[in-house]
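Chain A, query sequence.
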Amino acid sequence: MTGSTELSAAPRGAPTAGRMPDFFIVGHAKSGTTALYEMLARHPQFHLSAVKEPWFFATDMRYRFAPRVGSVPQSLQEYLALYAGAPEGSLVGDASSCYLWSRTAAAGIAPLAPQARIIAILREPASFLRSLHLQLLQTHVESERDLRRALELEPERRQGRRIPRRSHRPQLLLYSDHVRYVEQLRRYQALFGREQMLVLIYDDFRADNAGTVARVLRFLGADDSVAIAPADANPTVRMRSQTLDTLLHEVSVGRHPAARAVKRAIKPLASRRVRRRAMETFRQRLVLGAVAPPDERLMAEIRLRFKAEVVAAGDYLDRDLVGLWGYDRLG
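Chain A, predicted structure.
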């Protein structure tokens, strides 16, 4: 499963030869993908790119604005360069949580890495969408702070209206598309087959972190006896003020009028690394905060709305997700 792969076709770049990933963690976001990525990266048999989310094959989720230089690969050559340092015999992986949502990723991956293993993580829809909404607020993709209102805006946003000014990937605002679990999984099944897919449930990962990772290692043909410290990455937080967050960002990159004066004052006193750490500390204390309790009435409404998706996913996986996630107790 490891080794060099001859590439005969690729998106956004001329054909070339190079090392393609052996496996893809395709999503979902806010469902443990970052924690799984970090834990696998600690295993000696693995080589994962320093860019955790290359997003390369999600061609239907391109930036609304020009991406920052070096933020994501723009050509096949740039993508392959992420794995250029992989030792011989190592397991190479791409962890892009948008690939499960994307309608193009599976078809882009399959011709280049037909033997790749696919790992997906599913989370109960209401808690998933709530956590995703908070994440999109934090990254300025979303500006509507009320989840109910954000969900109600979806029809308009499908028409390209009511898109936040700074939203760089407005496709993510189509919340209901994120929980079309069976449709998403079948895109991969059609191209890779069920035997090359591992579908995990977020609840299992949370309840038995080590056991779930061991299952992933066995699926990928890696040594599952290696002890890996648990990870609790990318916790959900509340965005207090996007305006203040924008101000801090502009100061940190030198765009705000006050930025130069601030940098002149502190540059002789602290290194660039220390200054960045201080800015992040300010952000954590002033901009981000603890998450408020969920609106249980809204959570119940979301569960009723997407119960059919849960039933279908349970049938597809041959598992009682309705009972696991409490959908059998809905009024």
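The longest strand covers residues 117-122. The chain has two domains: 5-236+296-329, 238-289.
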